[in-house]
Every structure is written in C-alpha cells, then in structure tokens.
Amino acid sequence: MAEEKIYFYPVIIRLWHVINAVLCLILIITGISMQFSNPKYPLIRFNVAVSLHNIVAILLSVNYFLFLFGNIVSGNGRHYKIKIKGLLNNLTLQLIYYTKGIFQKEKAPFPINKERKFNPLQQFTYLVVMSILVPVIIITGIALMYPDIFIPLKFLGFSALHLTDLVHIMAGFMISLFMMIHVYFCTLGTTPVTTFKSMVNGFHEAHD
C-alpha cells in the first residue's frame, strides 16, 4: 500500500487547533463546575469558575474570529465548502463507512488527497459546529455576562434569562459531544496515533 504525506497543517493551523482545544476544555470543566458542583465541595470554587469561564470565553471568541479571518485570507476555507448536489447520499455513504466499512478494512468512499481535506460528513459536522453552535454559544454567553442589557424580558411566559442559559448549556453540551467524537475518530487512522502525529509535524498520511 503506497503512502503519501500531504502537508495539510501549517504551524499556524496547528497552533490555533491546540489553543482552541485547551480553551474548550477549560470552558467545559468550569461550566460543569458552575452547574453541578456542591457549594461545600466544589470542583472549582464558584466565583473562581465564573471568572475563569468568562475570561476563557473571551479568548475563545477571539480565537474563533481569527479562524474565520484566516480561512478567508488563506483560502483554507475552500475545504469546508459543502457540495449540495448528492449531499444526502454522500453523508450516508460516509456514515456507513464509519459504522461498518472501516472495521471491515473497506476503502474509504471519499479518501483524503491534496484537493480534499475533509470528507462530506466532516464538512457537514464542521459547518454545524463552527457556523451554528459556536456563534450561538458566543451570543448567548455575551447575553449571560450582561443580562440587564440583553435579556431583561420574558418570552412566552418564561424568563428570557433562563431560556438563554438553557440554550447556552445545550450548545455547550453538543460542542462537548462533538469534541469527544472528534477525538475518537482521530484514533481511526493508520494507527491510533497517526492523526495526532499530524498535529505535531503537519503532515497527513494518505494511502492508496
């Protein structure tokens, strides 16, 4: 089986990825601490968790806009463009491969090459996370930081503050779930560490 190494991940992309992962992890830990910790035995003391959560959230927001700007000026954004024609069929093929074919050593329906960095399912998932969930969690996060300005009213008889908090938590949960699945799929390379190595050396190992 021939192997080709494609330099897909320049230093700036790898640095952004690591920073994003660390910031998300801190937000998850502090968010869980604020929601579920016993006041007498907190995972992180509540006031510390709130302050840290807010600071890291601002840093993550800045990092997100750097991601958008970088994709626009570098041309990397082309890898995230979804082809609408045949999308459902392509998503189905990739899902079948992930749930069955990959364990039977079948050939990937959309192998990675110099022109295709992500398969259709990855593109669709990244679109949902980066274009919907992340903006939602940023907007609701800002509203929760300044509730007197942004959410003083009621909506359908419910407190707008509570609804905003619920949306924020739901978006955070879905992003957390995405991160866990993302890490799992990173172990499905040629070896369990192949994909992780690409975040160190920048090269994706493609196979025929």
Written overview of the protein:
Helix content is 64%, strand content 7%. The radius of gyration is 20 Å and the shape is globular. It has a two-stranded antiparallel sheet. It is mostly helical. Strand 2 and strand 3 form a beta hairpin.
Compact summary:
The chain has helices spanning 11-36, 46-74, 87-99, 120-145, 147-150, 160-186, 194-201, and strands at residues 3-7, 154-155, 158-159, 203-207.
CATH topology: Fumarate Reductase Cytochrome B subunit
Q: What's the structural domain tally?
A: 1
- Number of beta-strand segments: 4
CATH class label: Mainly Alpha
What is the chain-wise order of helices and strands?
EHHHHHEEHHE
Unreliable segments of 5+ consecutive residues? none
CATH superfamily: Transmembrane di-heme cytochromes, Chain C
Topology, please?
Elements (H helix, E strand, L loop, with lengths): L2 E5 L3 H26 L9 H29 L12 H13 L20 H26 L1 H4 L3 E2 L2 E2 H27 L7 H8 L1 E5 L1
Helix pairs in contact: 1-2, 1-6, 2-4, 4-6
Keywords:
two-stranded antiparallel sheet, mainly alpha, Fumarate Reductase Cytochrome B subunit, single chain, about 210 residues
